[in-house]
Amino acid sequence: MKLDLVEIVPPDFDVDVTLAYATDANLTGRPVYRNAECWLHRDAAEKLAVAIALAKPLGYRLRIFDALRPSEAQWALWNVRPDPEFLADPRRGSPHSRGVAVDLTLLDADGRELDMGTGFDAFTPLSHHARTDIPVEAQRNRLLLMGLMTSAGWDFYRNEWWHYQLFDARRYALIADADLPRSMMQPR
């Protein structure tokens, strides 16, 4: 399979890459990825570059928690927490497994994450967009992130303040670990 993937790394992309699934601080309790490499399809990478450019003059940077997620990783998450409110069923395929979704937050000028009302991957209704029962500052921060991302051409997922994807995600092929230039997954 010919993939049109771009590695998301500084200095090409002025972002902080902190892949949650390369650590044990995720819903599985162990690293899912052996290699903390951040990939996106070229179409998504171009829209990410626009979001980065929009955030910069406002004094913000993006922190990426996840981007391309091989199909095997989607299964690893689903096997621990088969919750369709927060995870795409791997039988249907996730936009992450197509390289056209990104999970992220905003950092201030000092490199601190903005308060978003919940942490990344908090599988709770409080993670849904437009919640008014979180602090007003967190509501503003979510709207700021949404404004930057949607202005850059991304669609949002209503249940997760951190998740953005291309509008036509299903037109992209699913990507397995074996399709990647270098394996991301932990050996079984």
From TrEMBL:
Pfam families: Peptidase_M15 (PF01427). Its cofactor is Zn(2+). One of its GO terms (molecular function) is metallopeptidase activity. Gene3D superfamilies: 3.30.1380.10. It catalyses: D-alanyl-D-alanine + H2O = 2 D-alanine. InterPro entries: A_A_dipeptidase, Zn_M74/Hedgehog-like. Binds 1 zinc ion per subunit. The record marks 69 as: Transition state stabilizer. The keyword Cell wall biogenesis/degradation applies. Its EC number is 3.4.13.22. The active site is at residue 160. Zn(2+) binds at residues 96, 103, 163. GO terms for biological process: cell wall organization; proteolysis. Keywords: Cell wall biogenesis/degradation, Dipeptidase, Hydrolase, Metal-binding, Metalloprotease, Protease, Zinc. Belongs to the peptidase M15D family. Catalyzes hydrolysis of the D-alanyl-D-alanine dipeptide. NCBIfam families: PRK10178.1 (NF007557). This is D-alanyl-D-alanine dipeptidase. The gene is ddpX.
